[in-house]
Amino acid sequence: MEQVSSKKKTVDQALVYIKDECRLMYGGFGGIGSPPTLIEGIFEKGVKNLHLIGNDAAFPEVGVGRLISNGRVKSMITSHIGSNPNSGKLMSEGKLDVSFYPQGTLAEKIRCGGVGLGGILVDIGMDTIVDDGKQRVEVNGKTYMLEPALTGDVAIVYAERADEYGNLIYDKTARNFNPLVAMAADITIAEVKEIVPRGALNPEMIATPGVFVDYLVESKGVNWTWAWQEN
Amino acid sequence: MEQVSSKKKTVDQALVYIKDECRLMYGGFGGIGSPPTLIEGIFEKGVKNLHLIGNDAAFPEVGVGRLISNGRVKSMITSHIGSNPNSGKLMSEGKLDVSFYPQGTLAEKIRCGGVGLGGILVDIGMDTIVDDGKQRVEVNGKTYMLEPALTGDVAIVYAERADEYGNLIYDKTARNFNPLVAMAADITIAEVKEIVPRGALNPEMIATPGVFVDYLVESKGVNWTWAWQEN
Amino acid sequence: MGMARELRQRIARRAAQEITRGMVVNLGIGIPTLVADFIPADWRVMFHAEHGVLGTGPSPLKGEEDEHLCNAGGLPVTVVPGASYFDSTMAFGIIRKGLLDVTILGALEVSEKGDLANWIVPGKLVPGMGGAMDLAQGAKRVIVLMSHVNKKGKSKIVKTCTLPLTARNCVDLIITEMAVIEVTVDGLVLQEVMEPYSVDEVVRCTEAPLIISGKLKG
Amino acid sequence: MGMARELRQRIARRAAQEITRGMVVNLGIGIPTLVADFIPADWRVMFHAEHGVLGTGPSPLKGEEDEHLCNAGGLPVTVVPGASYFDSTMAFGIIRKGLLDVTILGALEVSEKGDLANWIVPGKLVPGMGGAMDLAQGAKRVIVLMSHVNKKGKSKIVKTCTLPLTARNCVDLIITEMAVIEVTVDGLVLQEVMEPYSVDEVVRCTEAPLIISGKLKG
């Protein structure tokens, strides 16, 4: 792949890859570390019937919550939707199909897709609802559930800094699922606070090597209000 | 676990945990990133019948190579022994039992043990020698080999800097298998160039959280000659 | 939970007594979050959060919040010296490897065998399990903080859970506004009774049979 | 391989023509390592090494070596702007995910179907596969650099490999001191003949049948 020129794109250029029915992976935990400018762009573009893969449904107007609240999402593979009541409502109305996984299992399934493995064996949730219909595998006398790898069409991530090769550094707890989804989709778009030249990042600090990143978009910052800011 | 006091130990104190027949995991790639002071200590202490788990056999007098060359190793789970002719000799004489895995598979098997998973599904080496007798699992119409997790009794790692909680930062290509084995054993001993107080490391740079590390030992530096230094 | 602030604080204060110096602890949302307030900073307890931090500290001053540094409930926190950041696979690797000394969680039901139900009320509340299954199954010790009875006055400590489980045989200790109950192989042992309740009142409000600890009889 | 320096250089120089600007490339030990010398720095080719670096650069000056910064063969290197360090799982994640544009490897045998044998001679040489299986199976394009015949004068380009395989159907291009041969669905296509050899000589030294490319006939 030609990776010499800068991967920097405008939001519109990057959004070309996100279409109706897209299997869209996203970083973020309760909206922390979700890419606000790309999500705003997806919303404005009118993309619909999205299949989201990521940790949670955030809050009604925070992170991917806004896409869910506005009926743009057809299905979710996730661990938690409790902080966005619209998700539960749409789910009970049959308008949103939700598949739940224990959070650690979801993270590993996505990583698996990102590093080219077929799946993992895990015992979290054995003999509970999440065990229904799962393939079981025995290893050294212990039984595990088989969890296949997850991949997506496009991953959107938020990073604090990128160089022009696409190397990414995250900020504090905004890292969460970002490095995982960044590896697991066919196309990875990183929204970044600051894009610097090659060589300007400490190579020891890079969490996502640039080879995983296809396009870089400059962030306009968060356009929502956090729950803790509301009083 | 009581983790308030410093984890700093003398080499002798740390070596108490490494006994004959120990399943010993180690970091390092051709000796780069292997802990020289701990290996010297194991050698001097006379530990024998070790079961090594790590990437390679290094060179005859470099890294774990010295332990192998001196007949202290009973078995190895590894990916490569070609740079240490003593390993091949001992193996063909029936004095060293070697199990080979593709390097990426070995790394993932160790990580698996480190993060409490049962195994992975991988297709590297399908229909070759390494496929012999492996359990096969089908996922979404594709066949994989099942590779169980690997764990050890003790892991020895080399890090550039640690704080007193045991948080570790590695240096360049000396990172390699170190963060993986650091997670995968019952006891992890880190040999470190520099031990600093809590709070002195950038928390974004920490590759191994201190919770995985039991003991810290100060490094006396490499006591071998690298191949490239020999002319 | 709609419990009075005073009662919530009391439960949290009691739970804090289960923590010792240097432990690695994960606090769930709700009453468990309050536990941190009762643990001295010089104990160097390392608080773990699922989204990738080990070593969170007190809330920041108003105006000094960092939107990228929050606890698992989404509220701003700080970090202590020795903290580290990592991605979610590492956060859950720490949990599954068994390196959490204690996790403190809320619950909808706990059975006499220590089964935990805390994530779903089918047909009503389906928030998803988040990290609850990983925590309940992975932590060395699971402490549940909850109201003793539900809004309808029914015991939440039951013979058998009626709600879908989070994990089996995982709970070690239950702390409510009425009592401290230990889960043992012999069954539930009533270890402490909170003011102003009596042993009889606790037994009456508890569906599961309780073994009365010797120290309460004497 | 015991091949003259001049020949090794020639093979490496030819292999470098297969690399284009910005590619992600992993070079094996031996002749493949030499390929880097023939690729201009301003092409910004990113060299990948299995032990955790993407973006290695030229050898350092004598006396400026860093014992923690070596290539997979253990020889000191430098890094270029845009390089990153990571652990071995990430290094192999990049390989298995199919993000290596090209890997250039040595070989003991290559079959007409592109099967590769390059890690073991049972009973004689058992060094282990290292990263060879991951690279051969994972890279988008596999180029083999080797001597055309072995020490006994026997063709290393064979109908069927006699040695245990590294991976099946993985080789795309073979470059030797005699020829450049492409592996296609129709079989091996002789694309170029090196000075001073003739097409006939190459065919005679090759066990597997060769299709002669049109451009060599004309």
Structure characterization notes:
The complex is a heterotetramer, with 2 copies of chain A (231 residues) and 2 copies of chain C (218 residues). With 231 residues, chain A is of the alpha/beta class. Chain A has a single domain (11-116, 149-219), classed as Glutaconate Coenzyme A-transferase (3-Layer(aba) Sandwich). Chain A is 20% helix and 27% strand. In chain A, the strands form 2 sheets. In chain A, strands 1, 2, 3, 4, 8, 9, 10 and 11 form an 8-stranded mixed beta sheet that branches. In chain A, a hairpin with a 4-residue loop joins strand 8 (152-163) and strand 9 (168-169). The longest helix of chain A has 12 residues, at 103-114. Chain A starts with 10 loop residues before the first helix and ends in a 13-residue tail after the last strand. The mean pLDDT of chain A is 96. Chain C has 218 residues and is an alpha/beta fold. Chain C has a single domain (3-217), classed as Glutaconate Coenzyme A-transferase (3-Layer(aba) Sandwich), CATH 3.40.1080. Chain C contains 6 helices and 13 strands. Chain C has helices at residues 5-16, 31-34, 88-96, 132-138, 199-204, 214-217; strands at residues 24-27, 46-49, 53-57, 78-85, 102-105, 109-111, 116-117, 142-145, 157-158, 173-175, 179-184, 187-193, 210-212. Chain C has a 10-stranded mixed beta sheet with strand order 4-3-2-1-5-8-10-11-12-13, sandwiched between helices. A 3-stranded mixed beta sheet of chain C has the order 7-6-9, with no helix packed on it. In chain C, a hairpin with a 3-residue loop joins strand 2 and strand 3. Chain C is globular, with a radius of gyration of 17 Å. The interface between A and C is large, with 50 and 43 residues. Strand 5 (119-122) of chain A pairs antiparallel with strand 5 of chain B, so a sheet runs across the interface.
